[in-house]
């Protein structure tokens, strides 16, 4: 008998919206989460074809002598250069999407109740087309800035600068199947996540 299809949910939102927190709450309920940004970093170091493509495009300084990714160098190359950032993303994203397809096969074999794809650039990478539904986590900008300042210990201007690189919340919300308003307590967030988990895993 063929294994039942595992439902998939893409989770995104601006910096500080609470998407990582939401994903941890889903994990606690039994979902499996594929963290796209984490996977991208891993593949940039470990995937030989991707390493070569990055070396060809950005030069030998892209990797340190010990083989680790030279994050500072690459960050500087793409900072304030949208074309370079686009080129880097165009190299990395297909590898991440492929890895997600593999994760989906594994999740099907393991019959996990829900597979989540967490990605800051869910729409920009085309990953939204690989999932059944998209959840956007959102909160007012001032609250998001407060949360990131507290989390990362960086000044508000730096948080605002990072927000400039992301799609505005109105666009995210318009493309979402579900919007989670993360404006209350963590306990309220947990309850909202639980309700959505039940809805998505109902058989
Ligand atoms: P993102 O992954 O979207 O950048 P996080 O999930 O890391 O956001 O949340 C940002 C910070 O705000 C974290 O330190 C998190 O613990 C905190 N946080 C998220 N939601 C709430 C909430 N409802 N109440 C209080 N703190 C929250």
From TrEMBL:
Keyword presence, Transmembrane: no
Coiled-coil zones: none
SUPFAM superfamilies, sorted: P-loop containing nucleoside triphosphate hydrolases (SSF52540)
Keyword Glycoprotein among UniProt keywords: no
InterPro entries: Depp_CoAkinase (IPR001977), P-loop_NTPase (IPR027417)
EC number: 2.7.1.24
Primary site of residence: cytoplasm
Record's protein name: Dephospho-CoA kinase
Organism in which the protein naturally occurs: Rhodothermus marinus (Rhodothermus obamensis)
Lineage, top ranks: Bacteria, Pseudomonadati, Rhodothermota, Rhodothermia, Rhodothermales
